[in-house]
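re: the backbone from monday

yeah here it is again, tokenized this time
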């Protein structure tokens, strides 16, 4: 039986400004499966980021429940949410947000030290993860501005993984990268998922979405499409591409 890691019930998010209410997420009942590489798609402004932030405890829902790893995030206060996020969630953003005044290694350690005080153990783990994503020893003492975009985002992924998150959340992780850099980042995500890491990623790009094994399509605040794909493999690329293409055409 697949293990459900996140289950939302009637999840709603409404933004109010100038007396006008905008219902961005409407009564969403979503179950996400542990070990999946879930992709959230939808046009710009459809609420993808809002959904990602709600299910990861970055922002509170207006109404509804979010059961994540046996906690109802809707019931936690801000301090409890911060602790929950630190222990359970890793985040990767389009803008990457590495700290420019810290070395590559220190960026990763700063995140790790929030959860694990054993610095020696952390350093070992950080170095192992950096090697795993192709960031070799000669880059560990570099500063973020000395890295290419693809390298910086791979460091961003290591920073997100250093505390063994239950889920890695990624919001348009390749949105600012060229094609080769995107591929290097997506290869890392695919590899992590194949090693058991649960991932939830927002993208509006089909090639990026093809890395997932489940695609949720968001429109007007509801999930209007839910496509199962086999796990990513180069071999079945054409088949997956066609299946996703048909799905996206239906979504319009
Ligand atoms: P997407 O990621 O799919 O492009 P978002 O989730 O960022 O879309 O935004 C969905 C809608 O919610 C947009 O119309 C956006 O303007 C609105 N929105 C998002 N965040 C806020 C906020 N903090 N305050 C007010 N409106 C917001
Ligand atoms: Mg967005």
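seq for it, each position gets an aa:
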């Amino acid at each position: 039986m697949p293990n459900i890691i996140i289950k939302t019930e009637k999840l709603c998010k409404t933004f109010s400004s100038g007396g006008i209410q905008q219902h961005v997420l409407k009564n969403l009942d979503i179950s996400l499966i542990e070990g999946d590489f879930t992709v959230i798609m939808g046009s710009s402004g459809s609420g993808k980021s809002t959904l990602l932030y709600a299910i990861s405890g970055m922002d509170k829902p207006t109404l509804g429940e979010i059961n994540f790893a046996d906690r109802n995030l809707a019931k936690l206060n801000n301090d409890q949410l911060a602790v929950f996020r630190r222990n359970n969630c890793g985040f990767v953003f389009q803008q990457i947000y590495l700290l420019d005044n810290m070395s590559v290694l220190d960026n990763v350690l700063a995140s790790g030290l929030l959860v694990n005080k054993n610095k020696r153990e952390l350093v070992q783990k950080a170095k192992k993860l950096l090697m795993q994503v192709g960031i070799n020893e000669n880059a560990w003492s570099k500063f973020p501005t000395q890295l290419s975009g693809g390298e910086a985002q791979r460091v961003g992924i290591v920073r997100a993984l250093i505390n063994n998150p239950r889920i890695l959340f990624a919001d348009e992780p390749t949105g600012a990268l060229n094609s080769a850099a995107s591929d290097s980042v997506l290869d890392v995500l695919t590899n992590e998922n194949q090693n058991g890491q649960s991932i939830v990623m927002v993208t509006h790009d089909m090639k990026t979405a093809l890395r997932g094994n489940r695609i949720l399509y968001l429109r007007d605040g509801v999930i209007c499409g839910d496509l199962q794909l086999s796990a990513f493999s180069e071999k079945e690329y054409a088949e997956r591409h066609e299946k996703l293409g048909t799905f996206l055409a239906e979504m319009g």
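Residues 179-194 form the longest helix (16 residues). The mean pLDDT is 96.
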